[in-house]
């Protein structure tokens, strides 16, 4: 790269007199409603400085005193920002007029220069696109409309999203709070060769590829470069256990004879037999340095990629490499590792500023203030970070919950797993096997509480709970399952207090605050629902077996040695509802706490609907917590206006959340669901949440 990436807020990006040209070998604009609305939601969430992503460019001269950049990566995001600015800059107010007057950036598409150019200019000047036939008429109306349709659709999606006044984006907030990272390729990069290789493989340069090349170019020894490359290749495949991707020699060197040891921090041990190269070689020859451009060009020229060759050589001929579905992407995982490596809570968990953060904290560090390491150098940091990456990935593989590869993602079919890869010494079948990560006493407990966080923090970014787990694991020489569970429980209790916004110390104060936090209808925090389901699972699933020992486990979620009175009341009511359902006639739904698993239920459902299909008015307390639960979006959209008793007949209740089952149980027992039942359950859950959120206030 030509230097540190430029971090530009949207005002700087659009006010700068630059031309961004999308080359002919890049595809046309292709974002649809999902991608556009995701970007809009990201902008709305911007609180303080928010990084929207990266823009990789190559400087290709100037025209009329304007710097011209070819857009290498990020053109879909850049075009959407252009459409967003066009939609916002034509409001009849001074703010919009000032922003439009300062807008000097131009966006061009070589592949559709005339049609796209005319439409983009029209949107910028007038904000109107109601007559697409008039744009680029020289191409013929049908051809022009066909070519411009993706841009027109994108613009209309934004306009339609703004029809709801509450979803309107503040222009000044967009211009000042939202930033993008512009990164330049070196001036000597052979772009034709670069794109030829990329197009052949059907891939684009990703920010993590740039980071890898920077780390490798920061070290002078060929052996060190190869080791960093191998660590990166093994760690970047987030859907395989590392032992299945490493070579036989690497498995033993990095993970020990049984593949159970955490990788060493000592760099020479990671490098292995080739370590003498780190001292300049036996013949005293000078170390061979390579520029970032050289490393990047080597990676682009490999056919097939080195990562694929090495992974293939590491796979067992008699094995199907074991796969799982990771709960986090590799770029986001890198940000978690970077925060741990830097020991700095200011490192964002969002992967948008990936390039700039790595430049500032790893590659270009030459003083002891950035990471607290005396006499730190770029080479030392590159090695140190590669070692930290391998260690953190080992912790992730061994101690963090995942989903089975054959599970449907973001659905109610997800099955969770917590396994670790071990060497099979008998070698009768596979050379490895999968074992439970922890003892039977805590294995299922850890799966439940970790999966509770994963279905709450569904995106790849801002996985605060995952970071809290990795940080705790990083600090331990040996991982004790019970201590790990206790740590996550304490973190969960703190998170619950935060979501409930508890500030008072008196019971009545707290319960008023809880009532306000949970009676928010569809605006109620999803974590509160999921944590309540976790607490109910602990209370109900352990109620019948080994009462003393299991009750000690259940009491642990309250931070006490004994269960509070409200917990006993919950158990009693559940038993009544379950027994009633079991002995009722045909059509009654059974309740089953043992089959409960956390799924991606991400839509708040009103049990008694806001707008009943049967007519009549909704209960006055329809938005209270006792009438709410989480369902999958698919389930909610299909049945959201059915009344409560009708919903019971249409759902497989035993597969739903425990809170939903509780509502069904009371409705079936009392043969009705209305204002009184909602009030009754709301009060029960407020008392339980009060007990769960702070042990000192248990009543």
UniProtKB/TrEMBL annotation:
Residue stretches making up the GmrSD restriction endonucleases N-terminal domain: 10-216
Q: Where is this region: Disordered?
A: 266-320
The cross-references to InterPro entries, in alphabetical order and at most eight, read: GmrSD_C (IPR011089), GmrSD_N (IPR004919)
Give me the stretches of Low complexity compositional bias: 297-315
Q: Which Pfam families match?
A: GmrSD_C, GmrSD_N
Which branch of life, at top level? Bacteria
**Residues in domain GmrSD restriction endonucleases C-terminal?**
594-683
Name listed for the protein in its UniProt record? DUF262 domain-containing protein
């Amino acid at each position: 790269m030509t230097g540190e990436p430029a971090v530009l807020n949207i005002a700087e990006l659009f006010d700068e007199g630059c031309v961004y040209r999308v080359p002919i070998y890049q595809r046309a604009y292709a974002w649809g409603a999902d991608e556009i609305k995701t970007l809009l939601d990201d902008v709305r969430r911007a609180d303080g400085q928010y990084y929207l992503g990266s823009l990789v460019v190559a400087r290709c001269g100037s025209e009329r005193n304007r710097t011209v950049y070819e857009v290498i990566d990020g053109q879909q995001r850049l075009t959407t920002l252009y459409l967003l600015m066009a939609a916002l800059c034509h409001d009849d107010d001074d703010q919009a007029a000032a922003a439009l007057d300062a807008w000097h950036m131009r966006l061009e598409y070589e592949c559709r220069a005339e049609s796209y150019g005319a439409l983009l200019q029209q949107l910028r000047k007038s904000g109107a696109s109601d007559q697409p036939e008039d744009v680029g008429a020289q191409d013929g109306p049908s051809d022009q409309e066909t070519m411009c349709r993706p841009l027109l659709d994108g613009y209309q999606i934004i306009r339609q999203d703004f029809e709801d006044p509450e979803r309107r984006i503040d222009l000044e907030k967009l211009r000042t709070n939202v930033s993008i990272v512009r990164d330049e390729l070196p001036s000597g990069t052979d772009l034709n060769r670069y794109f030829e290789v990329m197009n052949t493989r059907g891939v684009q340069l990703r920010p993590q590829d740039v980071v890898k090349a920077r780390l490798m170019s920061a070290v002078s020894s060929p052996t060190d470069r190869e080791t960093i490359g191998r660590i990166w290749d093994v760690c970047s495949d987030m859907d395989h256990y590392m032992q299945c991707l490493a070579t036989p020699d690497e498995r033993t060197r990095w993970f020990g004879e049984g593949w159970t040891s955490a990788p060493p921090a000592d760099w020479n041990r990671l490098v292995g037999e080739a370590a003498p190269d780190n001292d300049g070689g036996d013949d005293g020859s000078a170390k061979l340095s390579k520029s970032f451009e050289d490393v990047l060009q080597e990676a682009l020229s490999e056919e097939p990629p080195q990562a694929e060759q090495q992974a293939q050589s590491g796979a067992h001929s008699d094995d199907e490499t074991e796969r799982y579905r990771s709960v986090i992407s590799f770029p986001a995982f890198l940000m978690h590792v970077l925060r741990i490596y830097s020991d700095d809570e200011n490192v964002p968990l969002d992967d948008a500023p990936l390039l700039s953060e790595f430049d500032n904290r790893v590659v270009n560090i030459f003083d002891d203030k950035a990471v607290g390491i005396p006499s730190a150098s770029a080479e030392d940091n590159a090695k140190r970070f590669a070692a930290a990456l391998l260690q953190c990935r080992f912790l992730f593989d061994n101690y963090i919950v995942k989903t089975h590869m054959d599970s449907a993602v973001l659905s109610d079919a997800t099955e969770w797993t917590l396994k670790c890869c071990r060497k099979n010494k008998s070698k009768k079948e596979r050379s490895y096997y999968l074992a439970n990560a922890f003892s039977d006493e805590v294995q299922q407990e850890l799966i439940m509480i970790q999966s509770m966080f994963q279905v709450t923090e569904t995106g790849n970014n801002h996985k605060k709970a995952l970071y809290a787990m990795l940080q705790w694991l990083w600090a331990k020489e040996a991982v004790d399952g019970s201590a790990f569970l206790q740590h996550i429980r304490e973190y969960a209790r703190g998170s619950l207090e935060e979501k409930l916004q508890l500030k008072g110390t008196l019971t009545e104060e707290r319960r008023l605050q809880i009532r306000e936090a949970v009676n928010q209808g569809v605006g109620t925090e999803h974590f509160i629902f999921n944590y309540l389901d976790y607490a109910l699972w602990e209370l109900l699933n352990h109620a019948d077996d080994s009462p003393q020992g299991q009750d000690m486990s259940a009491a642990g979620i309250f931070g006490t040695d004994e269960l509070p009175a409200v917990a006993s009341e919950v158990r009693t009511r559940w038993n009544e509802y379950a027994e009633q359902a079991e002995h009722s006639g045909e059509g009654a739904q059974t309740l089953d706490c043992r089959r409960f698993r956390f799924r991606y239920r991400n839509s708040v459902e009103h049990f008694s609907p806001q707008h009943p299909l049967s007519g009549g008015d909704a209960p006055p307390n329809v938005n209270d917590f006792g009438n709410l639960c989480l369902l999958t979006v698919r389930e909610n959209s299909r049945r959201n206006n059915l009344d409560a008793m009708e919903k019971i007949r249409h759902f497989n209740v035993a597969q739903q959340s425990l809170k939903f089952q509780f509502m069904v149980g009371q409705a079936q027992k009392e043969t009705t669901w209305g204002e009184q039942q909602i009030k009754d359950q709301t009060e029960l859950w407020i008392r339980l949440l009060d007990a769960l959120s702070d042990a000192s206030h248990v009543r």
